[in-house]
């Protein structure tokens, strides 16, 4: 009998396995596809490979602004996709090596929970039975595919794509329609618009980028529009047929022609077909319900990552898995989500942590906000000819601690963890100002914005 069986080898599962293995828990990990899960194989990592190629191409096209002339620059999409494959293979084999190093048994099969046995639980995979004292469920999420007429048929026929197929298309479609202006939709719009597609984003809300600070999502939309992306906001998809999407906007019908269309309207936790009912694990509309130690309703059964349906971010999953393993090991630890950063890897990048103005207002929090153009950071000006961005900081009006930091501009993704640290440690404006930022860096915009507050 193992100490721990883990279902799912994505970020939540493999990180839990690594930590458990190094803590000398005998651990068995089941993964039915490639190690690394959606994030590594068909999400975070391959999309970043594509986006980096778009960035390099964009620099080549607009190098003249920096005194660099590149003639006949072109983007070879097939080569971009091939490089994406190489990046993924390298990292997947890295995860395999980590499992080996931690002494984890990896079974490359689909597993499902059979039920309780004396002292633990039983799992079945490919006709074999495995037992463990504890279970950790990390089966992730899948694209949400609502019953829109024509959607299922379109996916089967191949003209409708999910996050998986959009990363491996063998040619750049002339017209790409994107249903859903959230994170996946925007990242793919950035790549394909630069690669040459005529991109149209259909979004049912009146703004893009979901819960992102509204001022920033408006600025981001303008940047996209400069690249030729069309946004149809407050627009509902009614039905889909090959070559055209029937929509409705303000009560009026509207047709969007396309060659390929991406469906990126959210994800659903993978809670079906894994035998949760055999243990009576409680789920809700989002996914498996856990407490902040990642314990489910069943003793010694844990769940982390997208399957809990809470944040659906790989970095959140990592931390949740650490909390689960620490709980198993009897070390005091718990999840705190108030300093959980999020990034949209567009160009320019969007990064935020903590409360947005909208969320602070909804929660009735008395806050003060200051913002500065990114052009107050010397390095930003040196590297972004004609470009702009913003840094926005929210502070609790009474206690003066930092509640939220929101950024639009280069390197934001690499800077935001520092802001998360400020929120996690409940730093006040005066404390955070004492931090020495390297100069010249774009990160200094945080320091500059902090000095906009009147605190003495
Ligand atoms: P999302 O929740 O970010 O965005 C979905 C969008 O689709 C929303 O704006 C929603 O209003 C819209 N929508 C829903 N139904 C619609 C309909 N019928 N017609 C038009 N619009 C509709 O979901 P997305 O982009 O699919 O991403 C899934 C998950 O993957 C997210 O939870 C995200 O956290 C994660 N992810 C994170 C990334 C990152 O951190 N950089 C990158 C990619 C994905």
UniProtKB/TrEMBL annotation:
<keyword id="KW-0285">Flavoprotein</keyword>
<dbReference type="InterPro" id="IPR016156">
    <property type="entry name" value="FAD/NAD-linked_Rdtase_dimer_sf"/>
</dbReference>
<feature type="domain" description="FAD/NAD(P)-binding">
    <location>
        <begin position="2"/>
        <end position="320"/>
    </location>
</feature>
<dbReference type="InterPro" id="IPR006258">
    <property type="entry name" value="Lipoamide_DH"/>
</dbReference>
<dbReference type="InterPro" id="IPR036188">
    <property type="entry name" value="FAD/NAD-bd_sf"/>
</dbReference>
<feature type="binding site">
    <location>
        <position position="203"/>
    </location>
    <ligand>
        <name>NAD(+)</name>
    </ligand>
</feature>
<feature type="binding site">
    <location>
        <position position="266"/>
    </location>
    <ligand>
        <name>NAD(+)</name>
    </ligand>
</feature>
<feature type="binding site">
    <location>
        <position position="48"/>
    </location>
    <ligand>
        <name>FAD</name>
    </ligand>
</feature>
<comment type="similarity">
    <text>Belongs to the class-I pyridine nucleotide-disulfide oxidoreductase family.</text>
</comment>
<keyword id="KW-0274">FAD</keyword>
<dbReference type="GO" id="GO:0004148">
    <property type="term" value="F:dihydrolipoyl dehydrogenase (NADH) activity"/>
</dbReference>
<keyword id="KW-0520">NAD</keyword>
<keyword id="KW-0963">Cytoplasm</keyword>
<feature type="disulfide bond" description="Redox-active">
    <location>
        <begin position="39"/>
        <end position="44"/>
    </location>
</feature>
<keyword id="KW-0676">Redox-active center</keyword>
<dbReference type="GO" id="GO:0050660">
    <property type="term" value="F:flavin adenine dinucleotide binding"/>
</dbReference>
<dbReference type="GO" id="GO:0005737">
    <property type="term" value="C:cytoplasm"/>
</dbReference>
<dbReference type="InterPro" id="IPR050151">
    <property type="entry name" value="Class-I_Pyr_Nuc-Dis_Oxidored"/>
</dbReference>
<feature type="binding site">
    <location>
        <begin position="312"/>
        <end position="315"/>
    </location>
    <ligand>
        <name>FAD</name>
    </ligand>
</feature>
<dbReference type="Pfam" id="PF07992">
    <property type="entry name" value="Pyr_redox_2"/>
</dbReference>
<feature type="binding site">
    <location>
        <begin position="180"/>
        <end position="187"/>
    </location>
    <ligand>
        <name>NAD(+)</name>
    </ligand>
</feature>
<dbReference type="Pfam" id="PF02852">
    <property type="entry name" value="Pyr_redox_dim"/>
</dbReference>
<keyword id="KW-1015">Disulfide bond</keyword>
<dbReference type="InterPro" id="IPR012999">
    <property type="entry name" value="Pyr_OxRdtase_I_AS"/>
</dbReference>
<dbReference type="InterPro" id="IPR023753">
    <property type="entry name" value="FAD/NAD-binding_dom"/>
</dbReference>
<dbReference type="InterPro" id="IPR001100">
    <property type="entry name" value="Pyr_nuc-diS_OxRdtase"/>
</dbReference>
<feature type="binding site">
    <location>
        <position position="306"/>
    </location>
    <ligand>
        <name>FAD</name>
    </ligand>
</feature>
<dbReference type="GO" id="GO:0006103">
    <property type="term" value="P:2-oxoglutarate metabolic process"/>
</dbReference>
<keyword id="KW-0560">Oxidoreductase</keyword>
<feature type="active site" description="Proton acceptor">
    <location>
        <position position="439"/>
    </location>
</feature>
<feature type="binding site">
    <location>
        <begin position="139"/>
        <end position="141"/>
    </location>
    <ligand>
        <name>FAD</name>
    </ligand>
</feature>
<protein>
    <recommendedName>
        <fullName>Dihydrolipoyl dehydrogenase</fullName>
        <ecNumber>1.8.1.4</ecNumber>
    </recommendedName>
</protein>
<keyword id="KW-0547">Nucleotide-binding</keyword>
<feature type="domain" description="Pyridine nucleotide-disulphide oxidoreductase dimerisation">
    <location>
        <begin position="341"/>
        <end position="448"/>
    </location>
</feature>
<dbReference type="InterPro" id="IPR004099">
    <property type="entry name" value="Pyr_nucl-diS_OxRdtase_dimer"/>
</dbReference>
């Amino acid at each position: 009998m193992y100490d721990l069986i883990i279902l799912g080898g994505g970020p939540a599962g493999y990180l839990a396995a690594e930590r458990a293995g190094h803590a000398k828990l005998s651990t068995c990990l089941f993964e039915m596809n490639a190690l690394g899960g959606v994030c590594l194989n068909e999400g975070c990592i391959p999309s970043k490979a594509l986006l980096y190629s778009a960035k390099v191409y964009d620099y080549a096209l607009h190098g003249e602004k920096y005194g660099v002339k590149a003639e006949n620059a072109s983007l070879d999409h097939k080569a971009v996709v091939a490089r994406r494959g190489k990046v993924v293979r390298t990292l997947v084999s890295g995860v395999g090596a980590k499992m080996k190093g931690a002494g984890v048994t990896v079974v490359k099969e689909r597993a499902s929970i059979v039920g309780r046995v004396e002292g633990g639980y039983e799992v079945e995979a490919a006709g074999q039975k495995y037992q463990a004292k504890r279970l950790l469920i990390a089966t992730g999420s899948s694209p949400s595919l609502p019953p829109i007429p024509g959607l299922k048929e379109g996916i089967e026929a191949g003209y409708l794509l999910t996050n998986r197929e959009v990363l491996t298309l063998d040619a750049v479609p002339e017209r790409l329609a994107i249903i859903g202006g959230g994170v996946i939709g925007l990242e793919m719009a950035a790549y394909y618009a630069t690669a040459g597609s005529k991109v149209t984003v259909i979004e049912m809300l009146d703004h893009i980028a979901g819960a992102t600070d509204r001022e920033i999502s408006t600025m981001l939309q303008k940047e996209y529009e400069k690249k030729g992306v069309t946004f149809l906001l407050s627009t509902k998809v009614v039905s889909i047929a090959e070559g055209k999407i029937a929509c409705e906007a303000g009560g009026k019908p509207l047709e969007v022609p396309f060659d390929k269309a991406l469906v990126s309207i959210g994800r659903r936790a993978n809670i079906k077909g894994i035998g949760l009912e055999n243990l009576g694990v409680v789920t809700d509309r989002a996914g498996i319900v856990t407490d902040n130690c990642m314990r489910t309703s069943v003793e010694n059964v844990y769940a982390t990552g997208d399957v809990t349906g809470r944040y659906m971010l790989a970095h959140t999953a990592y931390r949740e898995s650490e909390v689960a393993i620490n709980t198993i090991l009897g070390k005091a630890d718990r999840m705190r989500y108030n300093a959980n950063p999020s990034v949209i890897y567009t160009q320019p990048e969007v990064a935020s942590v903590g409360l947005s103005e909208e969320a602070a207002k909804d929660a009735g929090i008395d806050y003060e906000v200051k913002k500065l153009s990114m052009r107050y950071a010397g390095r930003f000006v040196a590297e972004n000819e004609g470009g702009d961005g913003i840094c926005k900081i929210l502070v609790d009006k009474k206690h003066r601690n930092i509640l939220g930091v929101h950024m639009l501009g280069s390197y934001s993704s690499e800077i935001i963890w520092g802001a998360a640290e400020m929120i996690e440690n409940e730093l006040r404006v005066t404390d955070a100002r004492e931090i020495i930022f390297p100069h010249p860096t774009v990160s200094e915009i945080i320091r500059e914005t902090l000095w906009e507050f009147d605190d003495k």
